[in-house]
């Protein structure tokens, strides 16, 4: 799988390892609208490797985690270093705020979550005034775990008859689907046109996949789409096991631009 290859080539000399990663990507690049490189939060070698070939980076930030902002700042710094090392077009598409550790069951709790998100946004912009913060906020980690457990996207889980979901759980999955579509649509407006076949280094941790999907990875224990560890560890992708989600060109939300030169 590509995740094993990433771990191996991350230890090679810089120029050689970037060439090898490009060689792995190019044969399949024309078959997909988006290539997401989802990397583990603790492996800086793999993160640096993916930043060396990525067109854009999406960074998650868990607003209830006191260390998450440091992770975002570290990710922004790594992107700057990647530009100097030979990928000058690499850019930060945006930061995705996650409030999965906060309760949203009452008005007062939702108000606290909104205020915390605003405070996090303000502090990040003090570090980098130009950083883009997505307006969509991820709130439902438990329901994303449900998708991974069944191996289904939200659409597949809602449309299938072979999995009985309690009414409340089905309602939550519908909300998660709406959030995922909102995030994807917003990313399509933020991510610039890229060179043919150039991937998106991403930390989407929402586990949504347009189908059909080609999986050339081991199953991640945490998630795929880091839009992965919402603890906001550095930027190029984040799930516990390095994984790559190659999203086939179909079934993107209606408002998303499904051109090849757009983009996790």
Verbal overview:
With 264 residues, the protein is an alpha/beta fold. Helix content is 42%, strand content 15%. The protein has a seven-stranded mixed β-sheet with strand order 4-3-2-5-1-7-6, sandwiched between helices. The longest helix has 24 residues, at 167-190.
Describe what is shown at a glance.
The chain is α/β, with parallel strands linked by helices and 264 residues long. It contains 8 helices and 7 strands, in the order ααβαβαβαβαααβββ. The longest helix is centred in the last third of the chain and has 24 residues, at 167-190.
Throw out a few tags for this protein.
globular; 8 helices; disordered C terminus; 264 residues; Rossmann fold; alpha/beta
Taken from the alpha-carbon principal axes, the silhouette is globular
Strand order of the largest sheet: 4-3-2-5-1-7-6
**Terminal CA distance:** 19 Å
CATH class: Alpha Beta
Topology:
Layout: H1 2-9, H2 14-29, E1 32-38, H3 44-51, E2 56-62, H4 68-85, E3 91-98, H5 107-127, E4 133-138, H6 141-150, H7 154-159, H8 167-190, E5 200-202, E6 213-215, E7 243-248
Parallel strand pairs: 1-5, 2-3, 2-5, 3-4
Antiparallel strand pairs: 1-7, 6-7
């Amino acid at each position: 799988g590509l995740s094993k290859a990433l771990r191996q080539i991350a230890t090679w000399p810089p120029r050689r390892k970037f060439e090898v990663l490009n060689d792995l990507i190019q044969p399949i690049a024309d078959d997909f609208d988006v290539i997401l490189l989802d990397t583990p939060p603790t492996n800086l070698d793999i993160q640096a490797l993916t930043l060396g070939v990525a067109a854009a980076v999406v960074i998650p930030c868990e607003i209830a985690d006191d260390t998450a902002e440091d992770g975002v700042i570290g990710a922004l710094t790594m992107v700057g270093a990647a530009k100097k090392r030979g990928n000058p077009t690499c850019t930060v598409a945006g930061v995705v705020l996650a409030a999965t550790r906060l309760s949203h069951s009452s008005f007062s709790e939702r108000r606290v979550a909104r205020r915390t998100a605003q405070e996090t946004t303000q502090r990040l912009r003090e570090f980098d005034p130009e950083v883009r913060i997505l307006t969509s906020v991820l709130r439902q980690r438990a329901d994303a775990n449900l998708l991974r457990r069944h191996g289904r996207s939200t659409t597949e889980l809602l449309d299938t008859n072979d999995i009985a979901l309690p009414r409340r759980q089905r309602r939550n999955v519908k909300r998660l689907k709406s959030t995922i579509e909102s995030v994807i649509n917003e990313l399509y407006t933020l991510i610039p046109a890229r060179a043919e076949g150039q991937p998106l280094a991403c930390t989407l941790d929402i586990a949504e996949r347009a189908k059909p999907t080609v999986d050339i990875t081991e199953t991640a224990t945490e998630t795929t789409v880091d839009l992965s560890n919402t603890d906001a560890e550095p930027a190029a992708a984040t799930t516990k096991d390095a994984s790559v989600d190659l999203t086939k060109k179909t079934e993107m939300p209606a408002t998303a631009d499904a051109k090849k030169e757009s983009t996790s």
